[in-house]
Amino acid sequence: MRLLFVLCAFGLLVAGCTSGVVTAPSSEGATTSPAQSAVTSLGADPPPNNSSLDRTDKAGHSPDESVLALIAAMNLSDWRTAYSGYASPTVDFTGASREWAAAHETYLEFRVLEVRVTASDAAWVRVVYGVSANPMSSAIQPVIVTEPGEWWPVQKVGGLWKTRWMPRQ
After folding, report:
1. Which of 106, 116, 120, 168 sits most deeply, having the most CB atoms within 10 A of its CB?
2. Closest CA to 147 of 64, 24, 34
3. CA 169 to CA 167: how far, in whole Å?
4. Do 142 and 53 form a contact (C-beta atoms < 8 A)?
5. Residue 60 Cα to chain centre, angstroms
6. pLDDT per residue over 96-121, tens digit each?
7. Do the beta carbons of residue 124 and residue 66 sit within 8 Å?
């Protein structure tokens, strides 16, 4: 019953807070999944994609796949995997996992719209999503990001694509 209430409340928030329906992803490097750095780039225009650069890391993953894996881990409350998906966490694992568990955030309708690889170890992933939070905490507000989306910086660390700490929370 509580879950139904949370879903209904979030639906009302989304309907009241969005400017419209999120449209289909752009064709360049787009993927869809139901499933950051101190700076999450809102509306910034990152450098153009350099198609001569390799998009895959040493594990064979692309920047968008690493972001999607991070979001999947967050939604599964797999804090160890989520923590390992960040390039340079500024909070220790114990503190971060405690905060994540308390916030009880869930990413909804997370989609990658575009990927730009700008250097051999740097990329940007443009995403749209909604985040629901623990309804028992009045300090945590839902986040809704619609088109044109947010650019999340991704970088290679040890040869693997990782999201820079922290996406907007």
Report:
1. 116
2. 24
3. 6
4. no
5. 20
6. 999 999 988 999 999 999 999 999 99
7. no
What is the identity of the amino acid at 141?
Q
CA pair distance 127, 147, nearest whole angstrom: 8
Nearest to 152 by CA among 41, 7, 33: 41
Can you state the percent helix, strand and coil of the chain, rounding each to 5?
A: 25, 30, 45
**For the chain, what percent of residues have pLDDT higher than 90?**
57
* Token duo for residue 36: 């950051």
Q: How is residue 82 written in tokens?
A: 């989520």
How far out from the chain centre does Cα 61 lie? 16
What CATH code is assigned to 2-163? Answer: 3.10.450
Alpha-carbon Rg for the chain in angstroms: 16
Instruction: Supply the pTM of this predicted model.
Output: 0.72
